[in-house]
Please model this.
Amino acid sequence: MSVDILNKFKEDQLEKKKDIPTDRKFRVGIIGTGWIAQSHILNYKKMPDVEIVAGADLIPGKAKAFFEEYGVPDALCFESHTELLNSVELDAVSVCTYNATHAECTIDALKKGVNVMLEKPMCVTLEEAVEIFKAEKESGKLLSIGFQPRFDPNMKKIKEIVESGVLGKIYYIQTGGGRRRGIPTPYGTSFIEKETGGIGALGDIGCYSLDMVLNAIGYPKPLTVTGYTSDYFGKRPNYYKNHPEYAEVFGVDDFAAGFVRLEGDIILDFRISWAMNMDTSGDTLILGTEGGLRIPSTECWNGSVGGPMKIYHEVAGSQVETEIPVIESKEDLFYLKLRSFLDAIRDGGPSPVPSSQIIINQAIIDGIAKSAALGREIEINIPEI
Ligand SMILES: NC(=O)c1ccc[n+]([C@@H]2O[C@H](COP(=O)([O-])OP(=O)(O)OC[C@H]3O[C@@H](n4cnc5c(N)ncnc54)[C@H](O)[C@@H]3O)[C@@H](O)[C@H]2O)c1
Model:
């Protein structure tokens, strides 16, 4: 994508209408009432200016049972997102479906004039991300992508450190995250089947690592990528203690790596794992001409800082380290993610986690998957819209 389109998009963001009067509640719906939908309903329920009016799930009876369990028995329930969008007037919707239906649900909601909180990852392919981006632009509605780590003060600190200039010019970043054994199957196989998950660890938790560093450095444009993916663990029947049959439907990656050239002469070295024979795929390292930042990894990667960060730099000729203590916060990141979305609708934007940034995250994920399939380096081209 040329920088042009991003700039155009920024102008559009400023033009978003304030279409919710301050004297009435937001009429909110939830599409997909599975695992993550719980955090959406529980947090919307904490907000006095929100009325949860409807929901949909493809599985008959699932939406009804969900709303009853979470104390919203009067919510109207549907068995597809289209039925919901055609039947109920909404101000906003949370798209909490599995990855493979993120794009269609988001595009259909935007086309109906509904603001969208879309769970991460943005979608499965770059082509889908482009269609989402177009639909958002045409609708003038607000879209925010569900990266709750953005609201973690430790994550904000990474961006503040980079922007302070203390690291100098950034030229190399190593990032990613590892789980020794952490293929997500707590409620079945929606993460691991190709038809529903679409992508594995690469998109599911890789999107967090990419956002952590790319947001800090201002989301430069990706140029080329060499990608690798594998599935050595997911396809093993004995991986799943109680469900050996899951191995047969495993159709995504459980490990991925990529070497990405970014605009501004920056190298991004990335690896991510749902399962591997190692405890960690390494800390995140941001190397700059004046300092280096080490961000400790977590044992089970979920997009948080694993301990005090350290800046390695030189003071009056001495090589020194400055520790950045972990910032404790009692705020619920999932609450902040939803609250910031609704506040942005009421204020007329900008989106707290905009698609103009996350399309770049998706382009890298897509580039790694496509390069891995081809077995060679490829260019990343985000098309003009
Ligand atoms: N932000 C986070 O920390 C976090 C945590 C877990 C999951 N997630 C994301 O949330 C999404 C959902 O994950 P999950 O664990 O809740 O999955 P899930 O499989 O438990 O639930 C998804 C539900 O969506 C429904 N669905 C799919 N397409 C639909 C459609 N067109 N209309 C109506 N319903 C539809 C499915 O029937 C299913 O019940 C994934 O993209 C995942 O990456 C985010």
User: Anything to note?
Assistant: Residues 1-14 have pLDDT under 50 and may be disordered.
